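Lab meeting notes turned into a lecture example. A postdoc, R.K., suggested we walk through two folding results consecutively so the class can see how the record format repeats. The first protein's sequence and structure tokens come next.
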Amino acid sequence: MPRQSRRLIGVLITLIGVVMATACGSAAPSYSPSPDATVTAEEAPAQTNDADVLAGVWVSEGDVPFEATITAGTIVVQIVDGESKSLFWKGTFPASAQEGDILLSEADVEALSSSIMGSSELVKPFTYEGDEILFEFSMMGTSTVIRVKK
């Protein structure tokens, strides 16, 4: 078996274990957004952040190794294992956001269909909470919320 295949299998086994362990310890919020537009929090008004605040590389802390790269109008989320990266999500992304916004990303179906770890969702919600972006990761019927920071 090629080294890269063994490595990918190792990443998958690790992720399954982390997802299962996380699922036993806490309940993940469930999102059911309509793909109409960005959903804005009903709290006190916050100032709009410009694209430079969202743009860049965001990484998860802890056991689940994710990296989200945001550029003008696009987000790419990858599962990282050392030097290997597997595409989980690629889609549209707004240029700006306010604290508490749920940002709806439309999938790049072509890119995701060729990735073994690619999400099958057509629209994925990302929650912007200032220094974090949150999104749901599901595998084998178990979901967990991933938090990435700049």
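The second example is placed directly after the first for contrast:
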Amino acid sequence: MKNLLILLTLMFAIESTAQSTLNQLPTYQGATRTKKKTTPKRTYTRLGSKSFVPVQRPPVRNVVYQYLDTTFPNSDNKFPITGNAGIGTNSPQNALEIMRLAQDGRYKNFLLQLTNVYTPRGLNEPTIMFSNGDIDFKNSSYWTLGGKVAGNEIDKDPVAFKVGFKAPGSIDEQEFFAIDAYMGRVRIGNVTSSHDGYKLFVEEGILTEKVKVAIKNSEDWFDNVFEKNYALMPLHELSKYIEQNKHLPDVPTTSEVMQQGVDLGKMNGILLKKVEELTLYMIDIKKELEQTKKELEQLKEKK
């Protein structure tokens, strides 16, 4: 009987200690705390050779934190559990809004910075992805907006700002648009920008309703053909030139066009020059015909 009383007393002491421990668990300031009700798991502590005392473990707690700035209560930042989040504003109008007072023209107002840690063999492209949300790579599609900010040993592409797209079922991402850091050259499609003297490089072609080409130098437009002092090549010399060179004077050859392309402004100027020269040839021929006709009429009168 005495042993039974000792055992009961010991059990009550252990239960009181466990309950006191639960009451002393830490509370959370500035946080939302939820409790997950679970069936307490009991373990047993051996007392002597035959007696076991059940010990109740504290229940599992799932804690959801909500940021409350208690150190700086007048902070302009807002990070609620639900709703819009704001950095620099307590009244964000979208899912995430970043606000800062405007700077003057000497400084940039950087609102967001994306940075990769540089590695010589890495693709140093801080990138934003716009995805369809499919976790299966075969079915996923996404647009990317990013910049290659440093060169590397694997990818030899120039430093550039890029827009790319990966279609469902495709393994590789296709680059649609890029602005190279060197001279600000713009590339549309899979095309190289290694040719100097140009700013825009387009794959396949351009379809537009109107193209206007500016002429930087008046000498590229040939209205001077109609000046009195213009040296028009005689027709017999022109015939000899064509026979030897297989093209008109000043007109680029096929090999030159294949290697260098066609300058639309300059080429239109050359074509204008040839039309004006052809007009002068026609005028001279007309004068010769009229003179020949006149001489024939005079011969008829003498007969």
